[in-house]
Amino acid sequence: MKTRIAIGLATSALILSISALAPSAAPSAVGALSSADAAVSKSLAGGGGGGGNVSSAGTRLGDLLSGWAVPVITVLAGCLLIGALASRNIGTSVGIVLITLLGLIFLLSPQSVESFAKGIANTVF
């Protein structure tokens, strides 16, 4: 029975990873090349699109990572939760759910976490 569960979880993870990595539509090589050439010439000309502007690079990187991290954490937690529930380990299941919720709150709403932490700090200090 345990090997069936392990095989099922491995197969599910493999199918999910393959479907996540599969391209949704193949980009045309000509369109990609012409837009890349346009971006290079625009950047070299200095007049377009804020070429070389790194003032909000951290914010943009954070948005990009949180956009990727939320689905990855959700899928990973779901796989771990299925495994914990299949082995009838309720304590581990509750722990996985709580840790996942805490991580998703930090990723999806960092402003509320910041204001909560500042409120606690103002109360204590």
Give a topology summary:
Blueprint (H helix, E strand, L loop, with lengths): L1 H20 L7 H17 L11 H30 L3 H19 L1 H15 L1
Helix pairs in contact: 1-3, 3-4
Task: Describe the protein's architecture and organization.
The protein has helices at residues 2-21, 29-45, 57-86, 90-108, 110-124. The chain is mainly α. It has a domain at 57-125. Helix 1 (2-21) runs antiparallel to helix 3.
How many helical elements? 5
Which ranges are low-confidence, i.e. pLDDT below 50, for 5 or more consecutive residues? Answer: none
Distance between the termini: 55 Å
According to DSSP, the number of beta strands is: 0
Structural class: mainly alpha
Describe the global form: flat
Residue fraction in strands: under 5%
Helical amount: over 70%
The overall pLDDT average reads 76
The gyration radius over C-alpha positions equals 22 Å
Biggest sheet record: none
SSE order: HHHHH
Keywords:
125 residues
Summarize the structure.
The protein is mostly helical and 125 residues long. It is built from five helices and no strands. It has a domain at 57-125.
